[in-house]
Amino acid sequence: MEEQLDVFKRNLEAFALKYKKDINKNPEFRRQFQIMCQSIGVDPLASKKGFWSELLGVGDFYYHLAVQIVEVCLRTRGSNGGLIELSELKRHLEKKRKGEGGISDDDIERAIKKLKELGEGFDIFTVGSTKMVQSVPCELNSDHTAVLALAQGTNFVTSSLVQRKLGWNPQRIATALDLLLQEGMAWIDDQAEERERRYYFPSLMTAK
User: Fold this and answer.
1) Spatial CA neighbour of 81 closest among 150, 42, 133
2) What pTM does this model have?
3) Keyword Repeat, does the record have it (predicted)?
4) How far is residue 56's CA from residue 191's CA, in Å, rounded to a whole number?
5) Contact between residue 47 and residue 56 where contact means Cβ atoms under 8 Å apart
6) What is the fold of 1-135?
7) How does residue 172 score in pLDDT terms, banded at 50, 70 and 90?
């Protein structure tokens, strides 16, 4: 078994050398290469320095992408509170990376996974069918994601809407909304026609 793995690793190295340009420039090719690596327990992102980094620059690619992700998230944090749709983050990155080759959602998720391991407050979670990127060290639970899911489509919720749709008591509603407000992930609108406070989520609005 070990001999077979060694042979496969050598073949993988030969493949990587032959298709180095494609791996670095083509997002889908890069994703397939990652899958091949994982199948034999090889992590080309394990270190920025080392064999794979020297051979392909793969480690450097994700390191550079991670730095760009941090830059975009810091720049947009004032408007979205550190919460941004993955698709919106990708649009910002593509503008920033003009001429550097394409990137995929998979590339972004792998780079964020490395940031998460460093304890930088980054995480990815799903709201409905939408992937959200969190860039602040805040513990969001299922109540917060349920509120965000409820806000999809309208970009806002009210306490009465949450109570009606989710069946929560006032204390549970206040606890969830207060944290989102505290972290800057929600904005208050007290000028609504129905005179009930609305809680808007800029991360959902900017993604349109």
Assistant:
1) 133
2) 0.69
3) no
4) 56
5) no
6) Arc Repressor Mutant, subunit A (1.10.10)
7) very high
